[in-house]
Design brief:
By secondary structure, the protein is mainly beta. The chain folds into two domains: about 90 residues, Immunoglobulin-like (Sandwich); about 90 residues, Immunoglobulins (Immunoglobulin-like, Sandwich). Helices cover about 5% and strands about 55% of the residues. The chain has one helix and 20 strands. The protein has a five-stranded mixed sheet, with no helix packed on it. Strands 13-20-19-15-16 form a five-stranded mixed sheet. It has a four-stranded antiparallel sheet with strand order 3-5-9-8, with no helix packed on it. The longest helix is centred in the C-terminal third of the chain and has 7 residues. The model has no long low-confidence stretch (mean pLDDT about 90). It holds the Pfam family TIG. Keywords: Signal. InterPro entries: Fibrocystin (IPR052387), Ig-like_fold (IPR013783), Ig_E-set (IPR014756), IPT_dom (IPR002909).
Length: about 200
């Protein structure tokens, strides 16, 4: 309403609207900063101006179990995602939002690998012995070393068996090491290299 000094007045009904200002949250720290591509990593986001009802996304996907602990702390559980650095976004209920660019990194978990047996357990120092390795978690691109020397893979049977041809090596008991591309590995001790004379006696 506008009122003149002579009491004349004019009114504009609803001419001005009060609005609640949009909050301005910030993200300062995320812990931990990495987790499995399978999701389920519990993270804590530290910052400012978080409000009840805030949501969190990682790489555009919604986190679950979001708890606004205080105006400076939020906890949540990451969703599944592809490997690599992803943006973390906190959005308050009034649409105020903050982004931490590349704030969380998804990593592919290292698979569990094991070797339970090898057959045969002996072979010539000249190499060339066909050895079948049995276990679990073998990748289709796993490599095998016998006594520190890379062996030739002659057959792969799913994720549980690999057949190799042993390399040449000095006499003695050596370690077999199977390594997957994701760096998961397993060892077996051991394979015994024998001389030709010993091999003949064992037949």
């Amino acid at each position: 309403m506008v009122t003149n000094s002579d009491t004349g007045a004019a009114t504009s009904t609803g001419g001005f609207t009060y609005v609640t200002p949009i909050s301005s949250p910030t993200i300062g720290l995320i812990s931990p900063v990495s987790g499995s591509t399978a999701g389920t990593t519990s993270i804590t986001i530290t910052g400012t101006n978080f409000v009840l009802g805030a949501t969190v996304t990682v790489g555009g996907n919604a986190c679950t179990s979001v708890v606004v602990v205080s105006a400076t702390s939020i906890t949540c559980t990451t969703p599944a995602g592809s490997a690599g650095a992803k943006d973390v976004v906190v959005t308050n209920s009034d649409t105020g939002a903050a982004t931490s660019a590349g704030g969380f990194t998804y990593v592919t978990p290292i698979g569990v690998v094991s070797i339970t047996s090898i057959s045969p357990k002996k072979g010539s120092i000249k190499g060339g012995t066909e050895v079948t390795i049995t276990g679990a978690g073998f990748s289709g691109a796993a490599t095998i070393k016998v006594g520190g020397v890379t062996a030739v893979v002659t057959k792969r049977t799913g994720s549980t068996k690999i057949t190799i041809r042993t390399p040449k090596h000095a006499k003695g008991v050596v370690l077999i090491v199977l390594t997957n591309p994701d760096t998961g590995f397993a060892t077996f001790n051991g394979f015994t290299y024998t001389t030709e004379e010993e091999s003949k006696r064992d037949r």
